Amino acid sequence: MEYMVITGHWIDQNWQVQKCVLNFVHIPPPHRGLEIVDAILRFLDDWDIQSKIHTVSVDNASANDSAIFHLKTYAQRKKKLFCEGKLFHVRCCAHILNLIAQDGIFEIKDMVEVILDSVEYVRRSDAKLFPERKLVDDCRTRWNSTYEMLSNAITFKDVFPRFAAKDPHYNDCLCHED
Predict the structure, then answer these.
(1) Does the pTM exceed 0.70?
(2) With 70 as the cut, is the pLDDT of residue 140 above it?
(3) What span, in angstroms and rounded, lies between the C-alpha atoms of 15 and 109?
(4) Count of CB atoms situated within 10 Å of the CB of 33
(5) Residue 100 has what pLDDT?
(6) Label partner for 108 (CA 20 to 30 A): which of 44, 55, 101, 159?
(7) 23-65: pLDDT as tens digits
(8) Tell me, what's the pLDDT at 129?
(9) pLDDT at 174 over 80
(10) Contact in structure between 31 and 65 (CB atoms under 8 Å)
(11) How far apart are CA 136 and CA 147, in angstroms?
(12) Per its UniProt record, what InterPro entries does this chain match (predicted)?
């Protein structure tokens, strides 16, 4: 993490949820909790919104846990904790979902690798001349792109064996049982 984005989420006077990027901060290494909380506190002071923070959501990095601890301690000293701080640290659900999905993908990694190799091979082949029938590639850090790739490969599951029959260099074809 070289940069940190601070976003605000609130309910306006018409009971509509609002959100916006409040700050985009460069945090040079090392990325320890004290450096992170220092950047957050500077921002809160600049905007004079120390008393308006009710919850903080971050991913599960250990430096973030340390930063939250220090930020919560600061808020306790200032007597600015909503619900006595019980809701102060909210884990990032998207990060948790990503970790769960990545663990599941790891369980079938051999099959995912074969499908990824197949998709990449077909995309580099003459089949790329048919752009309207495009295979989806995967981005390894985003589980939903792996899901899209697998879902798309299922759509083309009958095509892979036919492709293997016509191309002697294509060796990554899954059998129907897989």
Answers:
(1) no
(2) no
(3) 45
(4) 18
(5) 92
(6) 159
(7) 998 988 888 888 999 999 999 999 998 888 889 998 888 888 9
(8) 47
(9) no
(10) no
(11) 10
(12) RNaseH-like_sf, ZnF_BED_domain_contain
- Find residue 128's DSSP bridge partners: none
- The CA-based angle 163-168-174, given to 5 degrees, is 50
Give the pLDDT confidence score for residue 154 in this predicted structure.
Answer: 83
Least Cα distance to 76 among 65, 66, 88 occurs for: 88
Taking the C-alpha atoms of residue 122 and residue 134, their distance in angstroms, rounded to an integer, is 10
Phi, psi values for residue 112, rounded to 5°: -60, -40
Length reported for the chain: 178
* Calpha distance 78→17 (Å, rounded): 27
157 is written with which tokens? Answer: 């599951």
Q: Per the structure block, which two tokens stand in for 173?
A: 């074809």
Q: pLDDT at residue 1 above 70?
A: no
Amino acid code (one letter) for 133: R
What integer pLDDT is reported at residue 62 of this predicted model?
84
Tell me the angle at which helices 33-47 and 62-77 cross, rounded to the nearest 10 degrees: 50
Here the tokens at position 128 are 């790329």
CA distance 134 to 128: 8
